[in-house]
Specification:
single chain, 370 residues, alpha/beta, 9-stranded mixed sheet, 3-stranded antiparallel sheet, 11 helices, elongated
């Protein structure tokens, strides 16, 4: 039986196409079932850290798990030294980092998702140091920074002649500064405040205003944009359902609220109330003593007249106290009524403000930089 070369060629071609299709199918199944390895900093609270049980925790971690849930992804979260995590990502040992600050220098190597937070930086110093208004004032100073962190990158980029002291974590930086070594620590604002409180480092404080607002989100190496798009889509879903805001408020809200200091106001109100009670108690005691003196010196008619006078005094006092309470309640009621409206108004305008920021850069809002 004669088999033509054309027939053999067709069989070979079909076989090759079948093998290719099978390989793609297997690869697709593999991509869908393998775990995505996500890295982060093991000591960067409240964003990401290892909790007391040695498990990944924090805002970034909870957000990552929520994205994996809505996107149907299998994930494996690994937290370690930040510089080590960056190197593992670049070596292909990790697929993504769940929190990295954006910079124009970093986009040469990484691709970033839309931000899920804005991170500010602060300069910490021991109490008694003067205020710092800009990084240029750190020239010729000993400055502690996190190895591989955004401020390490930035200080190298601007080539400021400061002596950089490199440490692995923000906690190491603050502890070293609190021990009396070096001049300043340059760390992220919220982690610095959080760690200073948790470690009870009472001799160091942030000096000057927080600066350098940076977009903070997921990052992957260039070429892995397909994976990044899953995180971006999952983040969009969480934002639209309000779940991302709930996670944000849980971890970052208590540290970021900069409105009225209600705890201090409540404490002051308690002190004022105690003083009023003391004054009222003193008045009552004084009136009782006065009444006894009047009873001793006067006749029954004079005693009755004094009681009428006393009743009039108490009435006046009641009017005075009611007036004071009214003056306190009026502004308090207005505040309680209007603060939720102001909050809702800001939340409604936030998307417009953010869009304006993205298109035109920073601007002044209410006398402050946005």
């Amino acid at each position: 039986m004669f088999i033509s070369p054309q027939y053999i060629s067709r069989v070979i071609t079909i076989g090759i196409l079948w093998l290719i299709a099978t390989g793609w199918a297997v690869a697709d199944v593999y991509e869908q079932t393998k775990s995505v390895r996500i890295g982060g900093d093991h000591n960067y609270p409240p964003y990401e850290f290892l909790n007391e049980n040695g498990q990944p925790d924090g805002y970034n971690t909870e957000l990552t798990r929520a994205i994996a849930e809505v996107m149907g992804m299998e994930i494996e979260i690994q937290l370690g030294g930040w510089d080590t995590m960056r190197k593992q990502l670049e070596a292909g040992e990790l697929d993504a980092l769940q929190g990295m600050a954006f910079s124009t220098n970093r986009v040469k190597t990484y691709v970033f998702s839309p931000p899920h937070a804005i991170v500010h930086q602060s300069i910490f110093a021991r109490k008694g140091k003067g205020k710092i208004t800009g990084l240029s004032e750190l020239r010729d100073k000993e400055v502690i920074v996190q190895r591989g962190g955004i401020m390490h990158d930035h200080m190298l980029q601007i080539n400021l002649s400061a002596q950089l002291i490199l440490v692995d974590t923000h906690a190491d930086a603050l502890r070293l500064l609190a021990s009396g070594k070096h001049d300043y620590a340059l760390v992220a604002n919220l982690p610095g405040l959080y760690l200073g409180r948790e470690l009870e480092l009472s001799n160091i404080v942030p000096i000057g205003e927080p600066f350098g607002a940076q977009h903070y989100g997921y990052s992957v190496l260039k070429g892995n944009e397909a994976l990044l798009s899953k995180f971006s889509e999952g983040l969009a879903i969480l934002k639209n359902t309000g779940r991302q805001q709930a996670i944000y408020d849980k971890w970052l809200g208590p540290l970021e609220k900069s409105g009225w200091p209600w705890k201090k106001i409540g404490l002051a109100a308690a002190v004022v109330s105690a003083l009023l009670l003391l004054v009222l108690g003193g008045i009552v005691i004084w009136n009782r003593a006065l009444r006894r003196e009047v009873a001793r010196r006067t006749q029954a008619q004079q005693q009755q007249q004094q009681q009428l006078i006393q009743a009039d005094k108490m009435t006046s006092l009641g009017i005075l106290v009611a007036g004071v309470a009214h003056e306190i309640n009026n502004p308090s009621s207005l505040l309680l009524l209007n603060l939720p409206i102001l909050k809702e108004a800001y939340q409604d305008a936030e998307e417009i403000l953010e869009a304006h920021y993205q298109q035109h850069g920073d601007f002044i809002l209410g006398g402050l930089k946005y």
